[in-house]
Write a structure and sequence with these properties.
It comes from Hylemonella gracilis. This is GNAT family N-acetyltransferase. With about 140 residues, this protein is an alpha+beta fold. Helices cover about 35% and strands about 30% of the residues. It has a single domain, classed as Aminopeptidase (3-Layer(aba) Sandwich), CATH 3.40.630.30. It has a five-stranded mixed beta sheet, with helices on both faces. A hairpin with a 2-residue loop joins strand 3 and strand 4. It is globular, with a radius of gyration of 15 Å.
Length: about 140
């Protein structure tokens, strides 16, 4: 198996959408078709968000979407918003490789911090995250707008 992490390319659209739909289904967040179009265009144009793909033998098998933002204490922090690997290839190091590739981008940009969220019951992902990062114990709340 050859694994390559690289920015998403225009020819990845169909494979990316398949993975993105899998991600949204996993988290039970229905998303309109036009939102996929908008997200894809923003990713390709790096319009506030960035995307990396994990290519296993040149087939897109995982994705990472991330962004940089300021916070009160630092001009730049990196947020890994979405991370998803094709279920058929989980456990092969793809998630780890994507997390580390985003970390490299965060270092290159001088980000003071790199963080992400997941559901408390996402045991498989948390097993990986616990190897790579510190869980600070925070609980997230979403206020409806």
């Amino acid at each position: 198996m050859t694994l390559r992490i690289a920015p998403l390319q225009p020819e990845d659209r169909a494979a990316w959408e398949n993975l993105a739909r899998g991600y949204k289904a996993f988290y039970n967040t229905p998303t309109a078709d036009e939102a996929y179009d908008s997200a894809w265009n923003r990713l390709l144009n790096q319009d506030g968000i960035h995307g990396l793909g994990a290519y296993q033998d040149d087939e897109l098998r995982g994705l990472a979407h991330y962004l940089f933002h300021a916070n009160t204490w630092a001009p730049s922090v990196c947020y890994l918003q979405d991370l998803y690997t094709d279920p058929s290839v989980r456990g092969q190091g793809i998630g780890r490789a994507l997390i580390e590739a985003v970390a490299a981008q965060a270092r290159e940009r001088g980000a003071a911090r790199y963080y992400w969220l997941t559901q408390a019951d996402n045991a498989r992902a948390r097993a990986l995250y616990d190897q790579l990062a510190h869980h600070g114990g925070f609980v997230r709340y979403d206020y409806p707008l």
